[in-house]
Amino acid sequence: MTARRVLGVLAAVSIFLPAAAECQTETTTSTFRSTAEMELKIKNAVADLTVPESPAFAALGLSPETIVRPSTPREFATALLNGVDRKGHLQTGVALDVAPYLVFVANRITLSDYRRSRVTQILSRTTASLATTKATTEGDRTVRTAIGFHATLIDSEDPRLGNDQLMKCFSDLPLFQPPSIADPNVLDLLKKTFEDTVLVPGVNACRTRFQRNARWNGTSWIVAVAPTWISPTGLAANLDTGPVAAWTSLSYGFDRVPGLENNAQITAHFRHLSNELVTDAALPGGKESRDTSIAGVGLRAGTTGFGVSFEVSYLRTAAAGRSDDTSTRWAAGADRRLADNLWLNLSIGGDQGAQTGTGNGVTLLTGLKFGLSKDPSLTDDQVRKLIGAQSRP
Known about the structure:
The protein is α+β, with helices and mostly antiparallel strands. Helices cover about 25% and strands about 40% of the residues. It has 9 helices and 12 strands.
């Protein structure tokens, strides 16, 4: 086959492809979407939205905000924290979150499988986390550690479910409709050229647009639990069992409300902290064991890349031998995407009405959160099958 003939064939196909795309039928689109859902893995439908708060940090009371806002989890996430806690002590911390089911199974679960199985959806949205914080104030060597477990039971904007925009973009790609050419070498060359110049760039553009434009403020429900350990000396040998935290959050994204549907989200939160041992010279005996319940509501407004939030919570603390302590906690914060999968969070807050040992100072916390998912690009085998789906009448 001469080079001139090959170039002639490619030129003919370049003229033919746009015309074929205009004649795309509903049947072809349906076939393509069906094939895409069966061939694309759940890792191929990810969105670069804000990285969720680490449940282990939340259990330690050192997440930038008290109210944990539901968000679609990542396969891996890390968070770095630095700031002043409610007792005026400098704190630094690090957390590592992982979604085990996504890590080990995501390569084998298709979008079609995911849509059909409620259990698969919940397992994919369940994370485990480990966090540790250390006081850096002179005279305070306390180290706190927590292991958290977090599950998203409802997520209306799960990108692995709410991906109609992605599927529509895929199905709108130009069709591969080569003329009748007997020579298999030419046909292979045409397919390879179409793959490299049309399909792969088009798929990547669809994926990038989907990642950046996915709706961040869905209606979601999460539950979480996290045991903690504390070492007053900072030594691992002195780690002792700390309080156990359990919480739930329910968010509403103003679905189908003009002006708010894509820009606002309200979240209700309830948390219970049991058997917290508090040491304070002003307490009878210098220490006490207490249980704390927190109920609050928060509002976040913004876009997929930037948001501001304000929250207020009501706290009730119970301890043996004295009346319950009640207080109000407030916090305001902002988060911004600095780069792909990298987010900066800043928050300030404080307590009002707290009694002895509770802490009523102002907090100022900053955090960096980094989320990581498997490479969402398509494999050669997936590309070949998508081309096959496009070629069907």
